[in-house]
Amino acid sequence: MAVLEKIKEHRMIGILRGYDTEDAVKIVGALVQNDFRVIEVALNSPNAKETLKALKENFGNEITLGAGTVLTVEDAQDCIDIGVEFLLAPVYGEAVLKFANEQGVLYIPGCYTPTEIYDAHMAGAKMIKVFPAGQLKASYIKDVLAPMNDLVLLPTGGVSADNINTFLEAGAAAVGINSALVPSNRKVDEALEIEISERVKELKGKVE
User: Fold this and answer.
1) Residue 40 pLDDT > 90, yes or no?
2) Which residues, by range, are in coiled-coil regions (predicted)?
3) How far is CA 110 from the centre of its chain?
4) DSSP assignment of 42-92, as one string?
């Protein structure tokens, strides 16, 4: 199955930001135990590229692994060399999109306005991250898709168990979830792993 189809089928990308390698491996272990398997590591996390390597080594094909906050072609190349299956960014980088397409790797640029979204789509982006979605609400997704219903949108930023269904019902292909899935700046222990498990179950219960 193509990576884009895996993301659309999973309905959610779990975003890890701010955790070092050892903690990230523990967190992803908790996610995998609860059948949450599409995961992004933001490059502005400590030792992010080492974390990506460790996740590939520890989980292999059990997860679909992406790198987030990919802002340069150099970072895109490094992540592809590690074996990530998709790239994301908070903004639209034309050079990164061109490079990723040449490499046959899905790149999901971040856009905000209808013009930005359309320009990225026309340049070859197969999925577009609408960011920050929490400022826009689900009605924005519906409004953008009304005249351009062939777009594949991934609202990210501010998505939680309380509103995930509204985004999906508005036409989003999937959503990106950060702190509503993995709380920020927490000690990674059994209590956090239990909390993450509960959050996964709540989110899955909303979309199934």
Assistant:
1) yes
2) none
3) 11
4) ETTSTTHHHHHHHHHHHHGGGSEEEEES--SHHHHHHHHHHT-SEEE-SS-
Number of CB atoms found within 10 A of residue 179's CB: 16
In the sheet where 86-88 sits, what is the strand order? 106-108, 86-88, 64-68, 38-42, 12-16, 175-177
**Would you say how long the chain is, in residues?**
208
Yes or no: say if 158 and 133 are a contact pair by the CB < 8 Å rule: yes
The domains located in the chain, with CATH, are 3-206 (3.20.20.70)
Separation between Cα atoms, residue 68 and residue 150, nearest integer Å: 24
| Rg for the chain, CA atoms, rounded | 16
Structure tokens that stand for 120 in this block: 């990225």
Tokens 């520890």 correspond to 58
Token representation of residue 72: 């340069």
33-70 per-residue burial string, b: 16 or more CB within 10 A, e: under 16: ebebbbbbbbbebeebbebbbbbbeebeeebbbbbbbb
CA distances from 81 to 33, 46, 53, 72, 124 (A): 27, 19, 10, 14, 22
The percent of residues above 90 in pLDDT, for the chain, comes to 96
SS3 149: coil
